Amino acid sequence: MPRIFDRFQTDTRFRRNLIDWITRSDYRDAREQSYIWHRKFVFRGNPFNRVSAHAAKKCELPEGRTWNPAMSSHRTCWFETLSTEEREVEILGASAAPGISRHHWGTDFDLFSLNPRNFVDGARMNDEYQWLAKHGVHWGYSQAYIGGHQDHGYMEERWHWSYVPIAAALQEHVRANEAHFAAALNAQWDSFESRWGSKHPEDRRFFNFIRENWRPFMFHVNQGFSK
Ligand SMILES: [Zn+2]
Question: Signal peptide position in this chain (predicted)?
Answer without folding.
Answer: none
